[in-house]
């Protein structure tokens, strides 16, 4: 069974590094998507400092938590991964809107969207990505994660927690995701003067 080798240990440290890894890969995928589609919003991270999109990290963990009977059958995995990731995406969008007061994405222009938070087209994308995650990415990431020394867990977790709290407070205060793009002022110092 493929799944038993993918998620053999369920310790929190390993899950934390999977979350970080998939959040970073999601950030890269978002930046690539923005460049390819010519999206107006080209900055796609969800933390003040860390280049991470946590919806991808949690979505990946939800997919990895699917039982072996689902993960071992590609079509079933496609459907369940799509549904799992869509549920995570909806919950994150709801959280960002209600708690942080911002929208990181908006599908109101997509057909059959649900409150602008999810839509079938991206659910299909999440399903395809879920199959790739289980079949291709996870075996590689598991090897990389197993090589991370235990001593890095707590410093990384504390740094991420502090970045997350700062990010949430900043988003609530400003009401815009542009507040996370502090690095733009470094590239264009005169733009910050008014």
Question: Treating each run of at least 4 consecutive H or I residues as one helix, how many helices?
Answer: 8
Low-confidence stretches are: 1-10
Indicate the structural class. Answer: mainly alpha
What form results from the Cα inertia axes?
globular
- Please tell me how large the radius of gyration is: 18 Å
Proportion of residues in β-strands: under 5%
Give the termini separation.
Answer: 61 Å
* Helix and strand sequence: HHHHHHHH
Mean pLDDT level: 89
Strands, count: 0
What share of residues is helical? Answer: 55-70%
Report on the biggest sheet: none
Description:
This protein is mainly alpha-helical and 194 residues long. 65% of the residues lie in helices and 0% in strands. The chain has eight helices and no strands. Helix 5 packs across helix 6. It is globular.
For this entry, give a set of tags.
8 helices, 194 residues, globular
Provide a brief overview of the structure.
With 194 residues, this protein is an all-alpha fold. The protein has helices spanning 2-6, 12-37, 54-64, 68-71, 74-100, 120-146, 153-174, 184-187.
């Amino acid at each position: 069974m493929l799944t038993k080798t993918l998620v053999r240990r369920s310790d929190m440290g390993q899950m934390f590094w999977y979350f970080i890894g998939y959040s970073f890969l999601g950030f890269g995928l978002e930046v690539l998507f923005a460049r390819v589609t010519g999206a107006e919003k080209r900055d796609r991270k969800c933390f003040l400092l860390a280049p991470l999109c946590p919806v991808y990290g949690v979505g990946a963990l939800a997919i990895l938590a699917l039982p072996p009977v689902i993960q071992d059958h590609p079509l079933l995995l496609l459907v369940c991964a799509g549904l799992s990731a869509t549920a995570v995406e909806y919950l994150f969008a709801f959280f960002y809107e209600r708690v942080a007061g911002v929208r990181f994405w908006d599908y109101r222009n997509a057909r059959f969207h649900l409150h602008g938070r999810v839509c079938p087209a991206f659910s299909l994308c999440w399903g395809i990505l879920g199959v790739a995650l289980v079949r291709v990415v996870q075996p590689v990431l598991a090897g990389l994660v197993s090589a991370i020394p235990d001593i890095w867990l707590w410093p990384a977790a504390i740094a991420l927690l502090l970045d997350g709290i700062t990010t949430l407070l900043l988003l609530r205060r400003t009401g815009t995701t542009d507040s996370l793009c502090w690095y733009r002022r470094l590239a264009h110092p005169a733009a910050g003067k008014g």
